[in-house]
Amino acid sequence: MSINGFLISFILLHASLTLAKNPKEPIWPPVVQTDRGITYRSVYNDTRSVKYFSFCGIKYGRLINRFSAPAPPCYKSIKSCARGNPSISRAITPEYQIPGYPKCSQAIPENGTNYKKREKSYQYIPKVVPDDEVEDCLFLDILVPEKVWNQTRGKNKSLTAVVVYIHGGGFTSGDKSLKEDPSPLLARGLDLDPQGIIVVSINYRLGLFGFLAGAGNDFASNGGLMDQRMALGWIQKHIDKFGGDKSRVTLFGEGAGASSILHHLTAPNITDHFFPNIQPKIKHHRNFPFHFAVLQSPKFQPIITSQSDATYQKVLAVTSKIWGSKVKSVKQLRLLPYEVLYAVNTILVRESAYGTFTFGPAVDYQKGINNSYVPDYPLRRLATGRMAKGVHVMVGQKIDEGHFFEPSIMRKPDGLKISLAKMFPTVVKHHLEYVNDFLYPSRDYNSVDNGEIKRSAEGLRDIFLGCNIHYLLHTMAQSSGYVLKTTWASQCRFFEQAIFQAGARDTFGNNSSKTTINWLQDELLHFSRRGALTARIRPYDGSGRVLLASDNEPKNYIDDPSAKHQCRYWAKFKFERRK
């Protein structure tokens, strides 16, 4: 070890000993010690807009086996701790914080490629797995402004609001490392409220590793959602040690992140069943693990059982080809090298049909078994009142958000019916004909340019997105909504840029766009303080109106564009025939 390395190690060791012997003497930069004696060190960030501490790489859970629910982390104080599957790829704990380390296994579809005509040569098999992508990736980061930290350590100790960011990426890519500098958001939080905010970002398993599903198989579906739920439980138990108020936790998410929140809102409250060791035994600590939520464009494709089964069989087939030997079961998948499954995940996601990702949340209900996290489609759960009614929600949507399938199909007179038949192959034929001929009749689009494309886009938007938005706004007791009509709203990851970078740099084009983006950031921060009590957008309630935010028009309230009569049909639609 070099002299400099020795000095750094000595300083860190001295800091830990000082914390144990002199708890009242401040440590720099701060450290946090949990009730299990685990110490988390911070890094000091001195930016132009705000000074803050980052606690990165905090382990909130671990994997004992593949395709299983997560388990609590193993601590030295725990005498008996189950040994994990040795085939699982695990992160090497660094001696210092590495931003963005580690990531869960990543994969991205080749959108726009006609995968059916592409040669199945497996030329996309990764030669080397990136060092920072592992299976046991259940880590989170916490960002605390210095001013907030000092307030929580004084005599008049006060805890502050917590924003938990769940990244998007189609359930196959993304990670906890914020792609945008968080300092503008932290600074603006202090401008609007002296108590400021604390930001938490989390990893969760993705693709094959987090969302393998299939009826009757010996594994837990929706592992990625259960990872998120475990992280929220960890936050409830420990965030006060970082200065956060566990009774004021707001989730932010866009796309897959927002869809994740939707699934948590409609999931059974089964924390005791899956995570009995995460939340305290005290009864009032067993409340729902978040209190407010901002869902920007909660779109996802409902995955039916027949699709899950087909994907599972394809996983086995592709794995067998790569491994060079027949693979017939999850038991065998669990024993294979990580590199093999990483290649399988890459291939299947890259070959996803246009606008889809192959993997994602799937209904996992099995009769007589009480461990389902997604017992039914969220839309039906909302329509029948089976959701966390006490959570305050703000829901955002964009104008003309609905291009999910290939334009070549959508131009055809029966384009909508063809698309639906591909998505839901077991649906009775006359249901598809009813949708095509009566629910979205061609005559309603004859006078519109590209009428067939618009007809198909509207139908798919309603299923994937619009009706989710409408029923969230309509059924949740405390809800409000907004519609974005801006030049930058179509950008990839625009919501992340909006909430973290508003006012920071020339990202959003003209001055009108900048004004709108600054407004959006402020609205989200006001909402995160105490939900509907501090929100400035009017409640949805009986008016059914949402706020339109446009680059070129004054902000005004309009009828909710997602409130369509077709949603009543989709809320009862039988996506597949039950056997």
From TrEMBL:
Q: Which UniProt keywords apply?
A: Signal
Q: Does the keyword Signal apply?
A: yes
The Carboxylesterase type B domain is annotated at 48-477
**Is ATP-binding among this UniProt entry's keywords?**
no
| Secretion signal, residue range per the UniProt entry | 1-20
Could you name the domain of life of the organism this protein comes from? Eukaryota
Q: Which PANTHER family match?
A: CARBOXYLESTERASE
This chain belongs to which protein, by name? Carboxylesterase type B domain-containing protein
Tell me which species this is from.
Erysiphe pulchra
